[in-house]
Design goal:
The complex is a heterodimer of chains A (394) and B (385). Chain A has 394 residues and is of the alpha/beta class. Chain A is built from twelve helices and eleven strands. Chain B has a nine-stranded mixed β-sheet, sandwiched between helices. Chain B has a two-stranded antiparallel sheet with strand order 5-6. Chain B is globular and about 55 Å long. In chain B, 64% of the residues are buried. Classes of the chains: A alpha/beta (394), B alpha/beta (385). The interface between A and B is large, with 67 and 67 residues.
């Protein structure tokens, strides 16, 4: 059903358009993030945003004056501020430009920017996402995602939703909650080895990490909210060629949402993530997830990450843990992913920045062999919404 | 350039309080009407863009996710654009870009607000900077009054001229079946009404409403296959200006001028007053409609008071503005910008009913939000070019 109505018809049409004539392509010509840390106490939103924007433009030869439009992601609820983009337009370099706020993870903002370039509306776009969850209680952000009549009153929030998924996932695939440590241990050790976050300062041996917060999940199973900002500069192929820097090209975009009512969803899988991936793969002309050397996924919990990995096709249902074995998928969440550092609303765009760093050879861990990459973003109660962007180095 | 058209529109019954539906039910009502108008079902829709006012208005975070079940949008792309009061137009702009960029073929835009469920002005006051702006913020009314005072001094936008806007729009709303405020007033009534934040008085202010609007966009041949009366979008843009900087003029809106210049160039508009048959503008207060006349080039700077007094913007004038009654008839903030677009589409396709402007072929749309720093403009026509 989905294949036919959503994906098939538009993308046959799209493929025809993409391959005929001088269809513009979209390049990612620059990207940068601030350090992701539990709290940037000495800096305001505008400081974090301005740092990411300035750094993303460095090396592109572009100035803010050459940016045609700005698309940004952030949350009024996390910021404690209505239409919060209004307060940050100066720092975003958006003054007197076209600007839109997507109140969803920054990866969706990236897809909006890409659509503008593909459609010929401008040639350089700036995409920004940020989070300063240390200034509020992110649990309020999560619990207010649940509609107020049936789900919120019974205490359903991102933790209990993940716990329910975990119980069903582990039972179905005959796994134990302790098996999930393979996911979190690898994530934290990889993150701690990198400069872009403060994971190495977190003491994971204290008892609170093993307290059950949503049976069978412990705090260790959940993503840690952090502060930070990320900016990505996208451009048409014409501009990218002029820049002459190693660019990364967007090859596929897909997004899909599941129902809000958690009880109506599949119990131990994420079909919306699968649908998003299918759309992106079709646009990119890619048959299987095995084509990707670098994959960065977002998830609110260890079990969520496993379900995403399976939905993307990196592993069969119930076999996601295989990717975390010693001979597993080395290119999956090289950065550590979202569990050790989750700048809520910016997480997916950070994933894309990490993929770009690996493909363009700008990341310290890049060895020049990676050619194709995938970034995944998610949003909503129990990871209701999913976005997939595929990329390729020239 | 791909030509994109509006192929269906729908609006709820707007009301001060819609106690019979939830936010999701409200959105669904408008969507069902738009789908019926286009002769489509949700199976025919590739992508959904939701637009609503600040989420704090309705106290549900990312409410588009709640709407999914009621809209039948499972497994489709669904994303929400939020851009203050003009968010409906910002949502339509994203939908256009999805089609132009080849990411979708048919996009449903649904915009709504259920303002009866939240503390409106308190939520708006959180717009201001928490360190230096919030202590003396008075919702959106305080700075709007300051703007207007500056324009009274420099442009002659008198209280009487603004009152004429209230009289005109409230009169027009009498003919609009979707308007829920139907009471004619006189200039004297407006001038004598209670000051809320002088010179803004009670009758300068539109109602607070619950309501939703839905619009379906499609391109080229597909649009013509769906309907024999597509409303072609000849241009659309949405510009911003940054923070309350010292050099920000309070007299003429720079983002409005940028958006209008961009859209007029795309649509081939060189003489807006003569070329447009009808305009729908989003007037959060009467004084703003006067300002838009000038920013949109319907008259010269300082000419707005004369323009309204001349009757040119009345239903019977040469450039009728807000034949729907504008926000004075119904003001579900997050939906109002999309309502303006839908109303303009109805005008150029001859389907506006009792408030139809005879023979309207080219319509102008304006919307905006934030602290008057976000401004959008669109042009719709009965023909592609």
């Amino acid at each position: 059903m989905f294949e036919l109505i959503l994906a098939y018809l538009p993308f046959v049409w799209l493929t025809t358009r993409m391959t005929s004539g001088h269809r513009p392509r979209v390049a990612i010509v620059g990207s940068a993030q601030t350090q992701l840390r539990s709290a940037h106490r000495d800096r305001q939103h505008v400081d974090l945003i301005a740092e990411a924007v300035t750094q993303a433009l460095l090396g592109t030869g572009l100035t803010i004056a050459e940016v045609d439009f700005v698309i940004d992601s952030g949350s009024d609820f996390l910021d404690g501020r209505s239409i919060s983009n209004c307060g940050f337009l100066g720092a975003m370099g958006a003054h007197h430009k076209e600007e839109s706020r997507i109140e969803e993870d920054g990866l969706w903002a990236l897809t909006y920017a890409a659509s503008k370039l593909l459609g010929g509306t401008g040639s350089v776009g700036l995409v920004i996402a940020y989070s300063k969850s240390s200034e509020s209680d992110p649990r309020d952000y999560w619990s207010t995602l649940a509609e107020p009549f049936t789900q919120r009153p019974v205490g359903l929030d991102h933790r209990s939703a993940a716990g329910l998924y975990a119980q069903r996932y582990l039972r179905k695939h005959q796994l134990d909650a302790s098996d999930l440590r393979r996911v979190s241990d690898r994530a934290w050790s990889r993150a701690a080895a990198r400069d872009g976050n403060d994971a190495d300062t977190v003491d994971l041996d204290t008892p609170e990490w093993d307290e059950q917060v949503a049976t069978p999940l412990t705090l260790r199973d959940f993503a840690r909210p952090v502060d930070g900002a990320v900016a990505v500069v996208v451009a048409t192929d014409h501009v990218a060629r002029q820049i002459g820097r190693e660019s990364v090209w967007i090859t596929g975009i897909g997004s899909a949402i599941d129902q809000h009512f958690l009880a109506a969803r599949e119990p131990s899988s994420l079909p919306a993530a699968e649908a998003a991936a299918r759309s992106a793969y079709r646009m990119a002309g890619i048959d299987s997830a095995a084509d990707f050397d670098i994959v960065e996924v977002s998830a609110g919990s260890t079990v969520g990450e496993l379900m995403v990995v399976e939905a993307l096709g990196l592993a069969e249902a119930g076999s996601g843990l295989d990717c975390y074995a010693d001979d597993g998928h080395a290119g999956l969440n090289v950065s550590g992913g979202a569990l050790p550092a989750d700048p809520v609303m910016a997480t997916g765009l950070v994933r894309l920045h990490e993929v770009v760093g690996e493909l363009a050879g700008r990341s310290p861990s890049a060895d020049g062999s990676a050619r194709r990459g995938l970034a995944h973003g998610t949003g909503g109660l129990g990871m209701q919404n999913h976005c997939v962007v595929t990329m390729e180095r020239a | 350039m791909t030509a994109i058209a509006i192929v269906g529109t729908g609006q709820t019954e707007h009301a001060r309080r819609r106690l019979d539906v939830s936010q999701a039910g409200l959105a669904r009502e408008a969507v069902l009407e738009a789908l019926a108008d286009a002769g489509l079902t949700m199976d025919d829709i590739d992508s959904v863009v939701v637009a609503s006012g600040p989420a704090m208005f309705g106290a549900v975070n990312q409410p588009e996710k709640w709407l999914v079940d009621a809209l039948g949008a499972r497994y489709k792309p669904v994303v929400r654009v939020t851009s203050g009061g003009g968010t409906g137009l910002a949502g339509a702009l994203q939908a256009m870009n999805q089609i132009k960029g080849g990411l979708a073929k048919r996009v449903l835009v649904v915009a709504y607000d259920k303002l009866s469920e939240g503390a409106l002005q308190a939520s708006i006051s959180t717009l201001y900077d928490p360190f230096w702006g919030r202590d003396f913020a008075v919702g959106i009314m305080g700075f709007s009054a300051a703007y207007w005072l500056a324009r009274i001094d420099t442009l002659g936008h008198s209280e009487e001229a603004a009152a004429m806007v209230a009289v005109k729009n409230r009169k027009n709303a009498m003919l609009n079946p979707k308007a829920h405020v139907k009471k004619e007033v006189t200039v004297e009534d407006v001038l004598a009404s209670r000051p809320l934040c002088w010179p803004i008085k009670l009758l300068d202010v539109p109602p607070i409403s619950d309501g939703a609007c839905a619009v379906i966009l499609a391109a080229e041949d597909d649009a013509e296959a769906i309907t024999d009366k597509p409303a072609w979008i000849r241009g659309m843009a949405y510009y911003c200006e940054a923070d309350n900087s010292a050099n920000r003029t309070m007299v003429q809106s720079e983002p409005l001028k940028s958006a209008a210049a961009r859209v007029y160039q795309t649509a081939g508009i060189t003489n807006p007053r003569r070329q447009f048959d009808v305009a729908e503008v989003q007037e959060p207060y009467t004084c703003f409609e006067l300002s838009y006349y000038e920013g949109l080039g319907l008259c010269e700077e300082g000419g707005a008071a004369d323009l309204i007094a001349s009757g040119a913007t009345a239903m019977t004038g040469d450039i009728p503005v807000n034949p729907s009654g504008g926000c004075m008839g119904a003001n579900p903030i997050g939906a109002t910008a999309l309502i303006r677009l839908a109303e303009a589409a109805m005008q150029v396709t001859g389907s506006a009913g009792a408030h139809q402007i005879d023979g309207a072929e080219l319509g102008l749309v304006q919307a905006g939000g934030g602290w008057a720093n976000l401004r959008g403009v669109a042009v719709v026509g009965s023909s592609k070019d």
